[in-house]
Amino acid sequence: MNTIYMDNNATTRVAPEVLEAMLPFLTDRYGNPSSAYTFGGEVARDIRDAREKAALILGASPEEIIFTSCGSESDNTAIRSALTTGRDKMHIVTSRVEHPAVKVLCNELKKQGYRITEIPVDREGRLDMDRYRESLTPDTAIVSLMWANNETGVIFPVEEAARMAKDLGIIFHTDAVQAVGKIPIDLSKSAIDMLSLSGHKLHAPKGIGILYVRKGTKFAPLLIGGHQEGGRRGGTENTASIVALGKACELASTRMEDENTRVRALRDRLETELLSRVPNSRINGGGAQRLPNTTNISFESVEGESILLLMDEFHICASSGSACTSGSLQPSHVLRAMGVPFTMAHGSVRFSLSVYNTEEDVDFVIDKIPAIIQRLRDLSPFWKQGGQVCAPGT
Ligand code: PLP
After folding, report:
1. What is the CATH number for 333?
2. 389 lies in a domain?
3. Cα-based angle 204, 210, 211 (whole degrees, multiple of 5)
4. Of 144, 167, 158, nearest to 186 (Cα)?
5. What burial class does residue 215 get, using C-beta atoms within 10 Å of its C-beta: 0-12 exposed, 13-18 middle, 19+ buried?
6. Angstrom distance (rounded) from CA 348 to CA 345
7. pLDDT band at 329, cuts 50/70/90?
8. What domain count does the chain have?
9. CA of 101 to the centre of ligand 1 (A)
10. CB 146 less than 6 A from any atom of ligand 1
11. Residue 392 lies in a domain
12. Residue 383 has what pLDDT?
């Protein structure tokens, strides 16, 4: 049986073109890019090339790109850098729905005496911009807001938020791990100071990321050591993965249109069909501006984890909550922040598509899910008690 992979916000397959580009750096081209001889110098040139490709998809210049090991490292570096360079500023502004790479770090910083403001979201997952505006103070060292939410795909107006921060001289960081390659980004026209990107969400391998740092932004490295990345991130370069990420960025630019037309249409059909075939189901964040590939659907009075187990029998891969939080039976912090009722939040499944998904994949999922939900509802005490009041298909 084929695997129907609809968990691309958790990770993506390495594109064959990307694999082909990186393989020589795992076999013959193993020189250290810092070495003086040609065998190393050639690799340095390939890294330069990858940096240019990565800069292009962001509308940045190559010197503004720092290669890191992952999105989490980029997030940690950005926030810690701003706190170091901000000296005695003790306030951080973020949102209630950030990825743990930001959220857990902020929880730790709170224990160390920093003041954290988490901006709330409404029922559709939209950021409360009034509360955001009010939260900015002369003591704010950094704002860190995600561009697009990994669980719901809801897009935050980060450009507007960055301009507000800039007016007050506050560093603005965005976790764009889910946004890059799915929606156009042009940092040359933006007030964003720092941006995080992760290779494995973009058909590059795991273990490579980028932190963009705008020219002129004060910066303090997280990893101190060698002179690599212009002294902004010590450690011998992960050459194969850097080259892979460059290629993945190039590919993503050429596929952005497919992502926003064909993939969006697949996602929309999946949603419409599931909502019409499964009563008491709803789209979380459906009323907000969203990524084209993501849908988060709640099926009332069933357990998301149980849905995943039954889907697994058909080799359908998706998530309940985010990949990083599944395994815990608590509804996700994102759905709780949106005020999704308990019996709905528990039964949520995130499908995240990619350019590799087909009409047949969607047909298969539409065919299997209604019976899976019915099977679970037949066993559910909540459902037998009448469940929560909710109009079919809302
Ligand atoms: N930020 C967001 C929004 C994510 O979705 C993820 C991964 O799920 C990360 C950060 C962490 O990225 P990485 O897995 O590369 O550390």
Report:
1. 3.90.1150.10
2. no
3. 165
4. 158
5. exposed
6. 6
7. low
8. 2
9. 7
10. yes
11. no
12. 80
Tell me, yes or no, if 324 is annotated catalytic.
yes
H/E run at residue 298: strand 294-299
Q: Inform me whether the pLDDT recorded for 326 exceeds 60.
A: no
Rounded CA-CA distance 236/214 in Å is 23
Specify the residue with its C-alpha closest to ligand 1, atom 5: 150
Q: What is the pLDDT of residue 296?
A: 98
Atom of ligand 1 nearest to the CA of 198: 15
* Structural domain boundaries, residue 339: 4-9+256-384
The Å distance, Cα 153 to ligand 1 centre, comes to 13
Residue 32 has pLDDT above 80, yes or no: yes
The torsion region of residue 362 among left (phi > 0), alpha (psi -120 to 50) and beta comes to alpha
Query: Among the three residues 213, 231, 252, which one is the final residue of a domain in this structure?
Result: 252
Residue 321 has a pLDDT of: 66
CB neighbour list of residue 95: distance below 8 Å, 6 or more residues apart: 118, 119, 120, 121, 127, 145, 146, 156
Domain closes at, from 252, 281, 297: 252
Mean pLDDT for all residues in the chain: 95
Both tokens of 226, joined, read 């060698």
Rounded-to-integer distance, Cα 377 and Cα 379, Å: 5
The pLDDT value given to residue 390: 41
Percent of the chain residues topping a pLDDT of 90: 92
Predicted TM-score (pTM) of the model is 0.95
